[in-house]
Amino acid sequence: MIRFKHILFVSTPESNQDNAVAMVKRFAGKLDAKVTLLTVLTPSTSLFGLSEGLDALMQEQAEHNARTQLSALAGHFEDAGIEVAIQVLWGNTSEQASLCARQQAIDLIAISATVEHSLQGYLFGTTAMQLIRRCPLPVWAIHKDARMPKRLLSAVDLQAETPQTDALARRLIDTGMTLADQLNAQFHLGCAWALENEGYLQIRGGIDEADFEQINQRLERKLESRMQTLLDDTDEASAAEVHTHLRHGSPVSTLTGMVTELHIDLMIIASLNRKGVEGLLIGNTAETLLQRTPCSILVIKPQAPEQTGPETKEPG
């Protein structure tokens, strides 16, 4: 059973993160988790060429200001009885956050997901996207309008039948059911499915419409059976009632529609690196979901990483 006991919140003061901070505080309180607040400072190229003493002075001032801001945030967590620590590092945000998480046995990274309205729809901020792409830990990208999750959706791929994909699907289900128990929330299990090369088969495949419908029906029954098998294999200790949704269509449009229709507050999806197994929510599909889904996203990786790695050092 997956339980989050130590949350790393990556603070991005340049964005409006007040709601994200409030969500992490309430989340940690519900899960009885401790929190580390992290700010990663990027050395400014405008300092290059200045005297060494002036560079050091400006860096020291920037770090002092960052610690002051984090200390103020930490006070809100302490007032709520939550164990909290602060840390300021220098470098690339996603790299330093990943190293910090490995060093401190973090099991969940949270970050405010900056949303911009554009022709591509909702676009999560680049820092959140980089964390999701690079970090081996679960990443919680908190939507600007997030509220405490009352309806959770784990989105699984049932068509990729390998031991790795089955294990990842079980991990998604287990995470969703565990959080539903802890947050007293509804749990929904969703899958978007379609025949491979379906559009080509419909237009040029020469398959009779009745035969095509029968093929779809057989596949749907098979996927229903696989979904039930995965549920039967999950933790029987969970008290969460499972609402299942098997919908025909492309992953992005179908799952986004499911989120809107079911009023989902938190969608739980899987992510592998770009060389991962075919058929999973990876690469462009996962990133498009992150851009378009109007709720917070929890991205789960195939397995819990080992909590070891290079030591993260602060400038001294």
UniProtKB/TrEMBL annotation:
Family of the protein in this entry: Belongs to the universal stress protein A family.
The record ties this protein, via InterPro entries, to:
UspA (IPR006016)
Gene3D superfamilies cross-referenced by the UniProt entry: 3.40.50.12370
Locate the UspA domain: which residues? 4-143, 148-301
Question: Which protein is depicted?
Answer: Universal stress protein E like protein
Localization terms from the record: Cytoplasm
Q: Name one GO cellular component term.
A: cytoplasm
Q: Which UniProt keywords apply?
A: Cytoplasm
Q: What does this protein do?
A: Required for resistance to DNA-damaging agents.
